[in-house]
């Protein structure tokens, strides 16, 4: 059982898009609403995307850059909160949190794709040079 759990967690960390597809399909099947399925899948996939970016950085450069990822998240939160405060002096924290979380999803998805392509390119070049 622990081996299955380890493989399952490994796949979800390595391929967070599978988590997105699974969550989207399940919520779409249960509710029938496309928009709520997308929102739920994005919100549920964000932690997996952050962890996947961390492990891609760790495997490509063999250095833990967790502090950079957390710093980026803090900067996104501060910037988004300031932006919402300037636009709406009486803003709701729930909306700020939801926007912060979805901006992080977008940012880390772009980072995941970039790092995946970067790692793939580096491996191909190293294989050709050897």
TrEMBL record:
InterPro entries: DUF3397. This is DUF3397 domain-containing protein. It comes from the Bacteria. Keywords: Membrane, Transmembrane, Transmembrane helix. The chain crosses the membrane at residues 6-26, 38-58, 64-85, 105-129. Pfam families: DUF3397 (PF11877).
């Amino acid at each position: 059982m622990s081996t299955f759990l380890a493989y399952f967690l490994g796949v979800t960390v390595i391929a967070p898009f599978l988590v997105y597809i699974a969550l989207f399909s399940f919520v779409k099947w249960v509710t029938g609403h496309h928009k709520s399925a997308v929102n739920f899948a994005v919100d549920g996939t964000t932690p997996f995307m952050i962890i996947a970016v961390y492990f891609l950085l760790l495997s490509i450069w063999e250095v833990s850059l967790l502090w950079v990822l957390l710093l980026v998240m803090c900067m996104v939160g501060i910037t988004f909160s300031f932006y919402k405060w300037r636009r709406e002096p009486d803003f709701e924290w729930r909306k700020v949190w939801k926007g912060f979380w979805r901006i992080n999803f977008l940012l880390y998805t772009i980072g995941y794709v970039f790092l995946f392509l970067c790692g793939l390119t580096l491996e191909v070049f190293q294989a050709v040079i050897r």
